[in-house]
Design brief:
With about 375 residues, the chain is α/β, with parallel strands linked by helices. The protein is built from 10 helices and 12 strands.
Length: about 375
Amino acid sequence: MVLLLCFSPDGPVPLSRGGPGTLIYRMPVYILGIESSCDDTAAAVIADDVILSNVTANQDIHASFGGVVPELASRAHQQNIIPVIHAALQKANIGKNQLSAVAYTRGPGLLGSLLVGASFSKAIAMGLNIPLIEVNHLQAHILAHFIRNLEKSNPVPAFPFLCLTVSGGHTQIVIVKDHFDMHIIGQTIDDAAGETFDKAAKIMGLTYPGGPIVDNLAREGNPTRFFFSKPNIPGLDFSFSGLKTSILYFLRDQLRKDENFIEKNKADLCASIQQTILDILLLRLEKAALQTGIREIAIAGGVSANSGLRSRLDALKQDKGWNVYIPPLAYTTDNAAMVAITGYFKYLKKDFASQSDAPYARSNL
């Protein structure tokens, strides 16, 4: 009898039965994922597509500067990367010698930060004599939807699906036909939606990162109280530079009349700004769904944690008959679990990287 076994929390379990006489153990593929594209140092371990650990060290030092300082970020990565990887392996309850491969974020991102993660990943892979896998950060955000958690099962989008990828550095609509067959059909021609949230927060004197603060205050405000201009861009592309200018000039004019205007109207301002950003995003997403006929809709990236975006997508799910996929909060911001799952799918294809591969600061999918 042949028994094929797969991973469970208690070890290998039977998958199927065959001919007489033999037991075959199919042990899981263990991938260590390392993420260091910006200011979060993260490591995760995955067994096949099942997450075992996901550890992140944040860098609070940037708050006092109102944004990420690249040099400080790379130095903090050097301090954090060893303890973060150690914690990820401990939490996963595996030794480094059990790893099948190391996956790391090659780009896009801050070059100094990427170099720390890439150099460390190459050293681990070489020392353990296991494959090295390079991962595109944007692709990883999308593939985070395929991470499996044995404690809670999340639905997985069916191919093809549309993914609205929104973060501090990118805003894109992507057709996803396969794990590695992705095509951008719309993207920002200037600034990203997440950067617009942060910039608006900074103008209002809110602390960094401003996006979550705007989201929290928006829950208490009137989203139709103030009007801000929306771009008239053809096709499925986005633009946010005009909106940032509109916010800046509006507040400048109001502060001339009342120096306490922002403090008196903070919640309504946040609600109105958030509503405008979400209108811009969802109008293009609706247009893309109509043009392609695709009803499988997903979101990814840091802004996918926004409660307003999640709420409005739930409403569109009912109104448009979409199947909507929203990632768990742990997989919205930069994290290593998304790097590990991408590494797993690449491992299955034997798509391995070279020790000579250099990180890149800019790239699309």
